[in-house]
């Protein structure tokens, strides 16, 4: 009987964690959008300069900074290259997050920026959204945890049963 209470508590915990997953995805998307918007404020200015003087080639603008005789412009090439890299990263992340829910989950779990995942988790705001997606994810998480627990317990029982059977068999010591 105690086992069933444990299973119920575990299922409820899994359901509550499961309903947080869509909320985490939303907060991750919001973080990407906010950082992309901020990066674009500066990027568009550099892109405007590249458009006016270098046929829109921002890489040429970076190379121009890198090869400048002025150490100030040479140093400015470093954050400019980083800015361009971040804008491309945010564009890629946004394109991946425009797919279906399961693909979004897979992307965040396997290929998303570790830095952005960690920032989102650190700043995560817990709530219980009762959207259809959250409820389904919570139920699936609860069922999955209970099924995995039952499989684990069954395997343990089977293993114990085999060990006990071997111990109870007489040892044949050929005389």
- Helix and strand run: HHHHHH
Number of domains: 1
Q: What oligomeric state do the depicted chains represent?
A: single chain
In angstroms, what is the radius of gyration? 28 Å
Class from helix and strand fractions: mainly alpha
What is the typical, i.e. mean, pLDDT?
92
Which residue ranges are poorly predicted, with pLDDT under 50 across at least 5 consecutive positions?
none
Helix content: over 70%
Dominant shape:
elongated
Through-space gap between termini: 49 Å
Task: Quote the beta fraction.
Answer: under 5%
Largest sheet: none
> How many DSSP H or I helices?
6
Total strands? 0
Task: Kindly describe this structure.
- Helix content is 82%, strand content 0%.
- The chain has 6 helices and no strands.
- The protein has helices spanning 2-53, 58-66, 71-96, 101-110, 114-122, 132-168.
- α1 crosses α3, α1 crosses α5 and α2 (58-66) packs antiparallel against α3.
What does this entry show, briefly?
The protein is an all-alpha fold.
Element layout with pairings:
Elements lengths: L1 H52 L4 H9 L4 H26 L4 H10 L3 H9 L9 H37 L7
Helix pairs in contact: 1-3, 1-5, 1-6, 2-3
């Amino acid at each position: 009987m105690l086992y069933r209470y444990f299973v119920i508590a575990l299922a409820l915990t899994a359901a509550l964690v499961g309903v947080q997953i869509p909320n985490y995805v939303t907060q991750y998307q919001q973080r990407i959008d906010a950082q992309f918007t901020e990066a674009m404020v500066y990027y568009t200015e550099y892109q405007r300069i590249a458009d006016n003087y270098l046929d829109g080639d921002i890489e040429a603008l970076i190379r121009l900074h890198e090869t400048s005789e002025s150490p100030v412009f040479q140093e400015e090439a470093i954050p400019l290259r980083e800015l361009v890299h971040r804008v491309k990263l945010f564009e890629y992340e946004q394109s991946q997050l425009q797919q279906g829910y399961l693909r979004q989950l897979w992307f965040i779990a396997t290929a998303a920026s570790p830095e952005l995942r960690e920032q989102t988790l650190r700043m995560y705001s817990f709530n219980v959204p009762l959207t259809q997606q959250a409820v389904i994810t919570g139920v699936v998480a609860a069922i999955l945890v209970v099924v995995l627990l039952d499989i684990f317990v069954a395997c343990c029982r089977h293993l114990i049963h085999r060990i006990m059977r071997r111990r109870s068999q007489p040892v044949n010591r050929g005389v």
